[in-house]
Write a structure and sequence with these properties.
single chain; 448 residues; alpha/beta; Alpha-Beta Plaits; TIM Barrel; eight-stranded mixed β-barrel; 52% helix; elongated; binds ligand C2E; binds calcium ion
């Protein structure tokens, strides 16, 4: 009996020890989680910021610089939206692994959030050193991935900033973000260094984003229509809808000045919906407009339920599918993602036209025609502009594409026709349709 309390006590002690171990493990686990990203196992944003603060302090003391590379996967949203989140997670963790294995011992990698990774290079001597890191990162990202039976060739855009004595972690990361935006808007799969001009642009961009949002609410966006003609007799056979922004202060703004921001922010989706509603109203009210072509960006194509919502809108307005053509540009991703192809195929099967826009400016043109359910193509304006009787190369290209159009039984439209000479050449090469200032400028519906 005398032993009992002791036994009890030892049992109690043991429990205590276990408790302490479990608690310590739990604390360690929490500490680990606080600085790591659970999906990729990489360090996380909090860690990156802590370390960057420290590296900046060290670099300043030594009179050196810190390089920061902000990596954002291109079109990741497309993967996520079309193949699902599980596939998206798989892409992130595979790329995380690859990046990790490409780092040297001094470089610090972490996942910043979403499809964003950050690499910190402490103590850099010159900009070239950072550029070499960017090259290395770019090369590992570009390797093909296999995800649920789909082959994907990812690319990433990289924004780069190099610290000076007054840099803060926050400021430096903001600079890389501005540089990233520049990298994206000059064509994805690139890197860009930060400069002051970009800072100003970043501020502008935020302003524009807010203004687009407000503009959508206030009905500042409207549609103009440009005729598409049959070249032979210049008879108008349809129109292309082009969006315009009547900005309260800046006046009329062209799509080139706000579409990049609308795409980056996802606002292109409600904007595209707005355009489609206006187009359907026009088609309902005017029977003489012919089919109307609408531009659809990759971000819209990738947004879930896009095709279904387009069909539902047509039905709401009692517009026949044959009255609508969607124009999509030849983005590499289009040829890789089955779901986009399926969406377009279902539209085409119902009678909606599917045209490849700006044909000839991408590099995957011909395989795209094979892989995507397209009904037509638009020869990019740059080809038409260099059509002169003595530029045999431009002539050969344009004539060659005309042959392709006939061979594949597609609708061929030459864009940007401005002169009689271009018209005559296109006609002689067998182009059937055209669009351009020679036949009519984009105009509001009243006078279209
Ligand atoms: P795009 O689809 O290639 O449209 C043709 C562009 O060329 C239009 O510019 C048009 O005004 C211009 N254009 C037409 N004929 C001629 C010509 O003879 N000479 C010259 N130099 N230009 C001509 P715009 O309206 O500024 O649109 C620019 C781009 O913005 C469009 O290029 C299209 O990619 C995009 N876009 C326009 N509206 C929408 C929209 O509602 N949604 C989406 N996602 N994109 C749109
Ligand atoms: Ca177009
Ligand atoms: Ca075009």
């Amino acid at each position: 009996m005398k032993l009992e309390p002791q036994e009890d006590q030892s049992a109690f002690m043991l429990v205590q020890v276990e408790d302490v171990t479990a608690e310590r493990e739990a604390q360690e686990e929490l500490a680990f989680q606080a600085l790591h990203d659970s999906l990729t196992g990489l360090r996380n944003r909090s860690w990156l910021i802590q370390v960057l603060d420290q590296d900046l302090a060290d670099a300043t003391a030594l009179g050196q610089h810190v390089g920061v590379l902000f990596i954002d996967l291109d079109n990741f949203k497309v993967v996520n939206d079309s193949l699902g989140h599980v596939a998206g997670d798989e892409v992130l963790s595979q790329i995380g692994h690859r990046l990790q294995s490409a780092m040297s011992s001094r470089e610090r990698l972490g996942r910043f959030g979403g499809d964003e990774f950050v690499v910190i290079v402490p103590e850099v001597g010159d900009v070239l050193e950072v550029e070499r890191v960017a090259e290395r990162i770019d090369a590992v990202i570009r390797q093909e991935l296999e995800i649920q039976g789909h082959r994907i060739v990812p690319t990433g855009s990289i924004g780069i900033a190099v610290s000076d004595a007054s840099s803060t972690a926050d400021g430096l990361l903001r600079d890389t973000d501005a540089a990233l935006f520049r990298a994206k808007s000059t064509g994805r799969g690139r890197w860009h260094f930060f400069d002051q001009q970009m800072h100003d642009q970043a501020v502008d961009r935020l302003t524009v984003e807010g203004e687009i949002r407000r503009g959508l609410d206030d009905g500042q966006f409207f549609v103009v229509y440009q005729p598409i003609v049959r070249l032979r007799d210049r008879k108008v056979i349809g129109h292309e809808a082009l969006v315009r922004w009547q900005h309260p202060v800046r006046g009329l703004v062209s799509p080139g000045d706000f579409l990049p921001v609308a795409e980056e922010s996802g606002l292109i989706v409600p904007l595209g919906r707005h355009v489609l509603h206006q187009v359907c109203t026009t088609l309902r009210d005017r029977s003489d407009m012919g089919p109307i072509s609408v531009n659809v960006s990759a971000v819209e194509l990738a947004s879930r339920g896009w095709a279904g919502s387009l069909l539902a809108t047509l039905e709401d307005y009692a517009v026949k599918p044959e009255q609508i053509v969607v124009e999509v540009t030849e983005t590499a991703v289009l040829s890789q993602l089955d779901s986009t192809g399926e969406d377009l195929a279902s539209l085409r099967d119902l009678g909606v036209g599917v045209h490849v826009d700006d044909f000839g400016t991408g590099f995957s043109s011909i395989s795209l025609l094979r892989d995507l359910p397209v009904t037509g193509l638009k020869l990019d304006r740059s080809f038409v502009q260099s059509l002169t009787s003595d530029d045999s190369q431009a002539n050969a290209l344009s004539a060659g594409v005309a042959g392709l159009v006939h061979g594949l039984h597609l609708t061929g439209i030459a864009e940007g026709v401005e002169t009689e000479a271009q018209w005559a050449t296109l006609l002689s090469q067998g182009w059937e349709f055209g669009q351009g200032y020679l036949f009519g400028r984009p105009a509001p519906m009243e006078s279209a």
